């Protein structure tokens, strides 16, 4: 938003709206969890006016973060880590153990969940707070389940904005968790500094579901539950994935993805996994790749918002809404081609749109 457009937004605020935003902003940068939760609720809203307020708040938080980064020598003040894996990979236990270890070391950790299935069921698959009981009681941790609204695009937008708010509230480690389904992993990989894939020590068939594309995006693969009777299978899976990774092309000049084992149950390998995450961050910061990745992600984020909004604008246009049911029917009956139907709808949209 240009500064003049933002000023226009701010000039239009009523006194009550201005007071609400001031209260949220002050509370947020003061590290109050209640203000952070309320701010995230504001960015999740579908209400048009509240959406505008959310953008004004975000803009202030972004300016605050830029100021912090310039004091930090231009380096990001927080580390964003995406975590994904198939159901049964033990993501919650892993996040809880890592989160507790980090708060014990003086970090502030926020956990955000991206669960597109909540779009269809109207509620998060993951009762996150019920799963991470220890971490949810920790005053230096903040856990936020996925918003149950709209599309994957919608969930992604609000999660991206929630990351910004968490960082503004002083959380220096932001973990973004996704259920290993559909496109959500790719969406998360596009909003974090490092993408970690968690896999259980299961048989080969059970791992067929993990898409090659997502393995290519992984900066680190962790074989979980590597303890007791599962130690043998865990070693085998580690070897298989190590060979698989060698065949994929490297994403970064400064980092080679590795496959490691860990157990949330015995804590074996957990401190080592975090040490690897830190060495990744250091290497990527030193080479400037991490900053470059963030800049590229901002652009991806902007275009995905444009696509979502343009499509919504198109679908809600009166001429399109009028012609759509009949054209859809004719396409399904095979009377006209999908290409012709699309052209006719786009014509209806452009000819009656205000020039």
TrEMBL record:
Pfam family, one: MeaB
Keyword DNA damage among UniProt keywords: no
Coiled coil: none
Catalytic activity field: GTP + H2O = GDP + phosphate + H(+)
Cellular compartments per GO CC: cytoplasm
Position of the signal peptide: none
SUPFAM superfamilies in alphabetical order: P-loop containing nucleoside triphosphate hydrolases
UniProtKB keywords: GTP-binding, Hydrolase, Nucleotide-binding
GO MF term set: GTP binding; GTPase activity
Domain of life: Eukaryota
Keyword Lipoprotein: no
Family: Belongs to the SIMIBI class G3E GTPase family. ArgK/MeaB subfamily.
PANTHER family xrefs: METHYLMALONIC ACIDURIA TYPE A PROTEIN, MITOCHONDRIAL, METHYLMALONYL-COA MUTASE
Physiological role: GTPase, binds and hydrolyzes GTP. Involved in intracellular vitamin B12 metabolism, mediates the transport of cobalamin (Cbl) into mitochondria for the final steps of adenosylcobalamin (AdoCbl) synthesis. Functions as a G-protein chaperone that assists AdoCbl cofactor delivery from MMAB to the methylmalonyl-CoA mutase (MMUT). Plays a dual role as both a protectase and a reactivase for MMUT. Protects MMUT from progressive inactivation by oxidation by decreasing the rate of the formation of the oxidized inactive cofactor hydroxocobalamin (OH2Cbl).
SUBUNIT field: Homodimer. Interacts with MMUT (the apoenzyme form); the interaction is GTP dependent.
UniProt name for this protein: Methylmalonic aciduria type A protein, mitochondrial
